[in-house]
Amino acid sequence: MDELNGRSAREVLDDHLNIANDWVGGTFEEILAEDLRRNVAEDIVILINRGTFRGHEGVRELAFMLADELPEHAAFEYTYVAAEGNIGFLEWTYQDSKVQVRDGADSYVIEGGKIVAQTIHYTVEPR
Predict the structure, then answer these.
(1) What range(s) does the SnoaL-like domain occupy (predicted)?
(2) pLDDT 10s digit of each residue in the chain, 127 long?
(3) 60 Cβ neighbours under 8 A, 6+ residues apart
């Protein structure tokens, strides 16, 4: 059994969030590939106000969309992180010289050491 499969929801969530904040120090494609390998189920479903995205290709599409919307790739600030059973919740903010996000909120369903479902909400505002 893969050692990643036995992780708790909080361990998966923490790993995902740590990798997400590494985008300031590495190539975006490498960081995304590592997160997909370690933390994201191949059949993930993500709901966001822009639509429903499925699988690793859907995650890639959303990640590149987020990278375009947050052009300076500064670090996220995680203001609240919680996990109970197989459910995780995150509140986050982001700020760079051009834009900010004050209302980021994501929820997660985590099974077998991988994120299998996620909801995402955030509003990008000019600064």
Answers:
(1) 34-117
(2) 478 899 999 999 999 999 988 766 678 888 999 999 999 999 999 999 999 999 999 999 999 999 899 988 888 999 999 999 999 999 999 999 999 999 999 999 999 999 999 999 999 999 9
(3) 32, 36
Which has the closest alpha carbon to 122: 55, 77, 72, 58?
77
Q: How far apart are CA 63 and CA 57, in angstroms?
A: 10
Distance separating alpha carbons of residues 107 and 123, to the nearest angstrom: 16
Residue 4: in which H helix or E strand, if any? none
Two tokens, residue 108: 């997660």
Amino acid identity, position 91: E
Domains and CATH numbers, the chain: 9-126 (3.10.450.50)
Output DSSP code: residue 96. Answer: -
Sorted by sequence, the CB contacts under 8 Å of residue 15 that are 6+ apart come out as 7, 38, 39
Which secondary structure element, helix H or strand E, spans residue 2, and what is its range?
none
